[in-house]
Specification:
single chain; alpha+beta; four-stranded mixed beta sheet; 6 helices; elongated
């Protein structure tokens, strides 16, 4: 195999150098398994999805913070990535929706569901009535055509 200039580690071309830098995986160093039984389960740990929901951000935002090294994550025995709540508080402050607390929008879930079902029934009745009107219109004789002068 012949080596060309771009195959050498000291390549100085800016685009190839930038592309090579993006293939590194710095997040591998920040994700580690928590194997110390003394520290397992002592702190509140949230999955990335739970952390995102607590702070009202997207999961990818939490993953980017882990990848950038702003917060550290560990993997549970089942392979799920978890973050200590203390790490999240250090980075983003107190969460808007603490874990375990029900969000205000979900407080009246039964009432909202009941209203939605009633509205759906009303819409179905309206659609059935409109279909009946359309069928009735189709049964009428066609309108008379105007005669030519």
């Amino acid at each position: 195999m012949e080596l060309v200039a771009r195959d050498w580690p000291g390549d100085t071309h800016p685009i190839r150098r930038r592309c090579a830098a993006t293939t590194r995986r710095p997040w591998r160093a920040t994700v580690r398994r928590n194997t110390n039984p003394a520290t397992q389960g002592t702190a509140v740990q949230l999955t990335t999805g739970q952390a995102a929901a607590a702070y009202g951000v997207h999961r990818s935002t939490v993953h980017r913070a882990i990848k950038a090294g702003r917060i550290t994550a560990t993997r549970r025995g089942d392979g799920t990535r978890v973050v200590d709540l203390a790490e999240l508080i250090r980075l983003w402050g107190e969460p808007a929706h603490p874990p375990g607390e029900q969000r205000p929008g979900n407080a009246g879930g039964d009432d909202v569901q009941r209203e939605t079902v009633e509205a759906l029934r009303a819409l179905r009745d309206e659609v059935a009535a409109l279909r009946g009107e359309i069928a009735e219109q189709r049964r009428l004789p066609p309108p008379p055509t105007p005669s030519a002068f």
